[in-house]
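Trying the structure run again after the queue cleared.
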Amino acid sequence: MLKLLAKSPRGTEDILPKDSSVWQYIEGQLREIFGLFGYREIRTPMFEETELFERGIGEATDIVEKEMYTFTDRAGRSLTLRPEGTAPVVRAYLQHKLYGEPQPVKLYYIGPMFRYERPQAGRSRQFHQYGAEALGTQDPVADAEMMAIPMELFRRLGLEDLQVELNSIGCPTCRAKYREYLIKTLEPKAEQLCNDCQRRLLRNPLRILDCKVESCNEVKTGLESILDFLCLECHDHFAKVKDYLGLLKIPYVVNPYLVRGFDYYTKTVFEIMYSDLGAQSTIAAGGRYDGLVEECGGPPMPGVGFAAGMERLLLTLEDRGWQPPTKTQVDVFVAGAGETRSAVVNLTFQLRSAGLAAEIDYGDRGLRAQMRAANRLNAAYAVIIGEEELASRRAMVRDMASGQQYELPIDDIEDWLMNQICTSGHVVKE
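Done. Tokens:
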């Protein structure tokens, strides 16, 4: 006898039907918002050549060093399950020469990502992200737009107490000067840094600013801000981003320690914070990456984007006790008494073809049991066909909410139900 494989792999979860309706509702809101902002959907493969992430994200990042699911295929190629969505979008942008289209090219995605992390609330090894990328524009309006899109979603979902943490990490020119300053200042204190930051000091010293280890926090005290090292262009860009956020009434604070975990970022970086979520308080993040397209082998091309975790959002909504408005799962349950099975099946499939969600009893149960099934399915209406009614080509239609009943010709039931359901919508809370 085969052993029952009773558990999904650690760090993964099944999304059961009772939960998938919530996902579908949020995804529907996302697609509508992205459409309003002029973004089109892109779907990239779930694995890519490993080099794409090493070059795009950065070899010295925690994701590349510790968290990627990398494997060798039968042809000896190194492939990696995508740990984030931006690098694959840039690869597709280049491969399909989207830079030849009118710019900017505005794309969005929704899908699973993979990182080998310690599973905890709101963080899994297979997780789902939604995000957007605007390629081919340096306009700071696009930076503000990347914060406005998730904020619009959160507004629709009733989330409050949100704040944007904002910073600029400059361009390669001004960032190089800050990098030199950090190395010079922190090298004498290297022994006080954690092991990870000691390794980062020469390879990627800006990542030290983002470290949460207490000893590193003490070392960071008194450091000059990267904002003091910005060149005139980066300074002006950052000022305009802040102006647009003010215009859009998006609350923000400047956090000079915010650098994000990817090497590809330039200028604007941000995180949208929900304070009541505890340690994992970031529910969306992103920034500008003006050198990533060129780093991946393309022409010089600016870009900006954001990404957010679906699981983290669901955890936030659960914390608020939020429930989505959902349409009743079943429009009509067709029940039969006596020798009416053929008529019941025929009407059920006719209603489905007309666009109504119709259900039927799949056993040989009595009418009372069938009506209990209709209640469990939260059906809006029940059509009851008895032998006598069938002989006269009539049936009883019951409004399951009010209990009111109507006797109608079977041939008229489809039109009658379509009129009732399209008019009322039968939107309920499950």
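The chain has two domains: 17-171+231-319, 326-428. Worth checking whether this holds up in the mutant runs.
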